[in-house]
Amino acid sequence: MELYELLMRRRSVRNFKPDEVPEEVVAKLAAAANNAPTGGNMQPLSIIAVREPERRAKLGEMVGSQPWVKNAPLSLIFCLDFWRLKKWAELSGVSFRGNEALSHFLIGYADVMCAAQTVVILAESLGLGSVYVGTIQYVADEVREYFELPPYVFPAMLLSLGYPKTVPRNVPKLAVDVVLHRERYEALSDEEIRKAFDDKYGSLDENVEKYFERAFVEAVEADRQETPAWVEAYRDKMKELAIKNNAEFLFKLRYPSDRMVEFKAEEIETFKRAGFDCFGS
Amino acid sequence: MELYELLMRRRSVRNFKPDEVPEEVVAKLAAAANNAPTGGNMQPLSIIAVREPERRAKLGEMVGSQPWVKNAPLSLIFCLDFWRLKKWAELSGVSFRGNEALSHFLIGYADVMCAAQTVVILAESLGLGSVYVGTIQYVADEVREYFELPPYVFPAMLLSLGYPKTVPRNVPKLAVDVVLHRERYEALSDEEIRKAFDDKYGSLDENVEKYFERAFVEAVEADRQETPAWVEAYRDKMKELAIKNNAEFLFKLRYPSDRMVEFKAEEIETFKRAGFDCFGS
User: Residue B86: which of B110, B108, B106, B114 has the closest Cα?
Assistant: First the structure.
């Protein structure tokens, strides 16, 4: 299959067979990650491969009982690693203060994501499915302790992988024209924006259950596994909040905007405890 | 060729033939980017495709006279776009405040990089070369004005593409073992760190010119094009600062640590002017 078709077909997979990922596959994924583009060729990346069932279960618990994390035979923790660079600089008689510089953080984090997405695509071509779990950032303290991360190493992204048991059906997407602009930003009118998202999610006259299914594929996939408590809780909450469209679903229930903003100060503290003093002044 | 080999062979390309990138290729790249993984399927991505010679030249000037930007037939500006989501939320009677939330920024920026790296890999498989230009972040004000970005849209990454005229020889990399850890972070000793970077860059007894060539492939590639003034300036500066190892080269000359840290406040202001109040408290 051509790569283009593979990329267009790819969906995040949350339901895995128990089959192990062979060692030679892990080696290939890591080698490709290590060869991904990186600003100034600095390579501020460490990957922790988690395969032991007990440690997978523990990681799954930490990130909020997402059953796919413990069920996936392989989880890769992509860390932004300034510890190694700091040590090396010190040994070379120079100081590296990337952990205090927003620009270093932003380029390093981009490097980490380049490596992670390279793994996603290579894994797909080798018959594996994968799913990103970004919530690992919120539990960085626990992750740092359990996986013995030194200071200046931040667990930036979790990727859980395995051979797919089921692959979600098509996920709704904006039309390409909405995302691609020519020569300058082509701002949509209110009417065009409304239409772009209606085209993506379906219009308001569809029922809430159908919305839920289209918009919240994780819940459907979780249901296939063990229906964790939060799936029921979300369903109840949808009724309670009288969620009547997809924007409300996203920004009232799933990512409640005010709470996300309030959370900022706590998140900055989490980074500081990991030695990253790159936000704020 | 298998994808693995393609990924291992891939290098950033900075020297392009003048040949246009056909419209159907641009369409494929954009479609793959639009289908890349994105947290909560929120798709906070806009891509500006820049092909007009005058606009390419202007963009090249903005990011600091890197000749490959104006010479590349296609440049894609990957923007973190919260404007579209805010408008949609507003039209749906709910508020989206992602521009004030660090967590939204970090997931959205990760989304943007997933899309960008998907384009890098697909482009490579279609015979194109590409190079990331992260410095676009530092000139966000100019870019926002010239490319008419609305508020809440940040130019997060620039990718310049074209058919390669030359491809750099192998770039030195850390051994995979240094980057891949098993079950927990496996901290290297000082001696191991020294060896890891000596293995990467060559040891101290090599001459500075050779270092320079290994460590600073951009300069070599720029030389092949038009030797911009900064290549000479860097060479002079290396002598002046008596750079004697690669860590000094990186953290005294190329990314001077103290200056990078000082720059933080200014960078936070740049984000604020774009409507992103997600750092600091």
Answer: B108
